[in-house]
Amino acid sequence: MIKNKLVSRGIDYIMQHLNEDITIEDVACYCHFSKYYFSRVFKEETGESIYAFIKRLKMEQSALRLKIEKDRTITDIGIVFGYSPSNYSSVFKKHHNVSPAEFRKRINTTCIPHPFYQNKSAGFKSFEEYDRKIKIQELDDFFVIYERHIGNYIELGRNWFNFLEKYKDLINEDTLMIERSYDDPSITSIEQCLYDICITVDKNCSLDNVTMIQGGKFAACRFKGSIKDIFYSYQGLFNIWLPNSGYEMDERYGLDIYRSVDCENMHVVMDICIPIK
């Protein structure tokens, strides 16, 4: 868990300005520290230098764009993240061990292996089957208590249990459990996935770890099933539905809103919400 609030604030700044030429000085200044002190604290908390973190996120978020924006040129996507055409291809290949063009060709639109469960894979459904489950919704802003984690999604259940136990006195019948996910685990190393776990609270809550999740227009897909199959629903939506839907994902990040959780049978009902414009 990211316990240092200023490091978490720095990560927010990086995520919000990923398509800009961010420097270590920019992030440190935003958090009101010298770059030397903040660089040390950031690496202690995340295991990565600020520079390495920014570069990795640019490569992984641009790969996601290659995946979901199939009609957009590789050159355009590279430019969005601050790279010239030749430099983008070189840096991308060094990070992913494959060129952007080959990465895009390899994107599988029929099935995908599960990154958390070895020897498990599943096929995708048709666009029409996904589309029937999608509802375009305007969501209000959410005020939440949150904890930020970098690590394997396989630890999500334990992290949720500890989180809910810690804040049980603030939970009532109207409380929503929300995950905010930033990475695609088919692209990002499973040990480096960034995510927030949250519960809704009154906007006047006085705790330090309260933030606002921006609402707006979302494509919401209701998922009912085993927790281990959430990954496949996500991949189907991003590999099949989104590239063919006529919608574009905007600069916000995805949300999972839990509607019910059956811990004993590892079964959930949740809305997978993709921010669109």
From TrEMBL:
PROSITE patterns: HTH_ARAC_FAMILY_1, HTH_ARAC_FAMILY_2. Keywords: DNA-binding, Transcription, Transcription regulation. SUPFAM superfamilies: Homeodomain-like (SSF46689), Probable bacterial effector-binding domain (SSF55136). Transmembrane segments: none annotated. It holds the Pfam family HTH_18. Residues 8-106 form the HTH araC/xylS-type domain. One of its GO terms (molecular function) is sequence-specific DNA binding. This is AraC family transcriptional regulator. It comes from Anaerosacchariphilus polymeriproducens.
